[in-house]
Structures are given as C-alpha cells and as structure tokens.
Design brief:
Layout: E1 8-13, E2 19-25, E3 33-37, H1 48-56, E4 60-64, H2 87-104, E5 111-116, H3 118-127, E6 136-140, H4 153-170, H5 198-210, H6 221-234, E7 245-250, H7 258-268, E8 271-275, H8 287-298
Parallel strand pairs: 3-4, 3-5, 5-6, 6-7, 7-8
Antiparallel strand pairs: 1-2, 2-4
C-alpha cells in the first residue's frame, strides 16, 4: 500500500463550529511526535515527503489544515480566497487540534512543534504562556514581518487597514481580495520565489492539480490586516514561551523579511540558524538548503 494511503485523515469541529481537517501517521504508541502548523495556502498533503521521512526515522507526525485552506472549511463563498475574520481564530483552532492530537498520541515520548511561515506565527502565539506539552519548537521562515515590496511598512499598513475597514462597512458579507490578488494560479518554476528544487516544486503543483479542492489564491484585505497585527504581536517581545525555540531563517527569502524574525530571536532568546541562499519554503528546497532543518527534526529521536 502506498505510504500516503496509510496516513489517517480526521475532521473536527473548532470552537465556533468550523470544520477542520487534520491527518496523522502513528509509528507506535511511544514514538516521538512532530506536530506541524503549515503556512498560508499549504495543505497537509504538501507535507507527504516530510511525514514519510519522519516515519522512516521512527517519528510520528500530525498536520492541521488551518481554517480556510487545505481540506478544511472555507471562510468565504469563493474557495480561492485566503481569508480570516480574526487571526486569533487560528489560535483557537490550534488549541482544539492539540486536544485531538493529545487524545491520539497520549504516550508520545517527546513532542516537537514545527511552524512554517504563517504557521510559525500561529505556533508562537499559541505557545505564549503555556507549555502545550511540547519539549521544543522549530520555526521555518516564520511570518513575523511581511515583505511589502518596497512600500514603507507604515504606508502598507495604512492601505491595508483602510481597505479592510471599507470592505467591512460597505460589503461586510463579501470579503475583497487585496489589490492585484486573485484565485489560484500555478506559477512557472522559473518565476517561483519558494524553492530552488525543480522536482519538489513540480510535485507540489501536481498534487494541487490532482486535488483542486485544496487550491488557494491570494489573501483578502482582512487577512493581511489581521496578519500584520499578529506579526507585530509575535515579534514585540510580549510573548512568554517556555520551551527551547530554534528559528530557521532563509537567507534569500522574498516572502517574509528577517527583521521580525530577528526581533523574535532577541526577545525570546531563541537559537537562530541562517541558511544562506535558501528561499522561503525550506522543507521544499533543494537538499543542501533543506538539510539543516530536516536534520534538526530527525534529531528528536536520538
């Protein structure tokens, strides 16, 4: 039986009734566990290679599809819109998800939380003032400040805030895409900003073509508005995280910026690993850029 067919799929209702999808692979009752909080647009199925590698090393894994993406319930009538009402909804979802994970993995010998990009912001905010049962947190290109394409951050925030306000007051039941954003569009490899790996990029796009229900396009004004607030909170020094944190920073990241990550590292006494030349998607990168993070993940079973 192909490995991915051995992965268990589950659904749960979040605190407000939203239906969330998650999946897991259980090596054994006492095997260490990696819990993954994916980035924006990412579906759990995008982590097939990672879950397989962990399994070969004797490590169990669980992945959540955040609300509005993957196989979880969408937040607007347009399934391609990346939208959220409040960023705190993601945190509430993650709390419910963790309860479900604890029920399935009550005897895991060690638990590691991995957050990528937006999922890193969610993971960091979730871990504030709680141990969550995790011995360690790894952050992959976490979204603690967003690339505003040369526009001063203060100006970008004003534009986004104004757009979100207008949308809520003029058409409250119809979220607007941010300027220039639209539905899912597969970008050619030579124009992508995510990875140097042609094969991993091809597999990612093929998976999304085979399962179009997981496709997601650009964000709405309100998603960006809430994301910027969450970035500021995560990098402001107001968090109290009990477990050790290692942050992996992609040296050639054009999606998020290093400033917020550097502030987070300073305030939280985290360990920072800079991977020079790497693009945003470290776990989808070429092997030489991907290996530092994978080696750290696999080390939880040493």
């Amino acid at each position: 039986m192909p490995f991915w067919q051995q992965v268990n799929n589950r659904w749960l209702k979040s605190f407000d009734g939203i239906k969330l999808h998650w999946c897991f692979y259980k090596v054994s009752e006492h095997a260490p566990l990696v819990v993954i909080s994916p980035g924006r647009i990412e579906a759990a199925l995008k982590y097939q290679e990672v879950i397989w590698e962990l399994a070969q090393a004797g490590i169990s894994c669980a992945v959540l599809d955040h609300r509005g993406q993957g196989e979880s319930e969408r937040m607007t009538t347009n399934p391609h819109q990346g939208h959220v009402e409040k960023f705190s909804d993601f945190i509430g979802d993650f709390e419910v998800f963790n309860e479900a994970v604890s029920d399935v993995f009550p005897l895991a010998s060690r638990r590691c939380l991995l957050g990528h990009s937006m999922g890193g912001t969610i993971a960091a905010l979730y871990m504030h003032n709680r141990d969550g049962g995790y011995e360690e947190m790894l952050l992959s290109s976490p979204m603690f400040s967003i690339n505003t394409a040369g526009i001063p951050v203060s100006v970008a925030k004003s534009i986004i805030s104004a757009g979100a306000w207008l949308n809520k007051h003029l058409m409250p039941n119809r979220p607007w895409y941010f300027l220039g954003m639209k539905g899912y569009q597969p970008v050619e490899f030579n124009k992508n900003e995510l990875t140097h790996s042609k094969n991993r990029y091809r597999v990612f796009r093929e998976l999304y073509q085979l399962q179009p229900e997981v496709q997601l396009g650009g964000p709405t004004f309100n998603w960006l508005h809430e994301a910027l607030i969450a970035c500021d909170k995560a990098s402001s020094g107001s968090l109290s995280i009990a477990c050790p944190v290692t942050l992996f920073q992609a040296g050639s990241d054009s999606v998020v910026t290093a400033e917020g990550q550097d502030r987070f590292v300073m305030y939280n006494e985290a360990t920072k690993v800079i991977i020079e030349g790497a693009r945003h998607e470290l776990l989808m990168e070429s092997d030489r850029y991907r290996q530092p993070l994978m080696s750290k993940l696999l080390s939880i079973n040493e």
